[in-house]
Design brief:
By secondary structure, the chain is mainly α. The protein is built from 1 helix and no strands. It is rod-shaped, with a radius of gyration of 36 Å. It starts with a helix and ends with a helix. Keywords: Coiled coil.
């Protein structure tokens, strides 16, 4: 094998190795991107769940306050009727 052939062979090997490294880096970047997207989706789902629980609790409290107010108004009306 001549020196020129040896150099071409080494150049091809180097180029193949460079391609493999580039592919590995691209795969790693894609994996990191997917993991970041997955984490963002998970966080968004957790936020939605928390917001729903908070909203449900707020609605429950509003309902309780309305019922309490209605009962107080009903008691006041009963007292007025008893006085008459």
């Amino acid at each position: 094998m001549t020196e020129a052939e040896q150099e071409r062979k080494e150049a091809r090997r180097y180029e193949e190795m460079r391609k493999c490294v580039a592919e590995a880096k691209a795969e790693a970047a894609e994996t990191r991107r997917r993991e970041r997207l997955w984490e963002e989706r998970r966080a968004a789902a957790a936020q939605r769940a928390w917001t729903k629980r908070w909203r449900d609790e707020e609605l429950r409290m509003i309902h309780i306050l309305r019922v309490k107010k209605d009962l107080e108004m009903s008691d006041d009306e009963d007292e007025v009727e008893e006085k008459e």
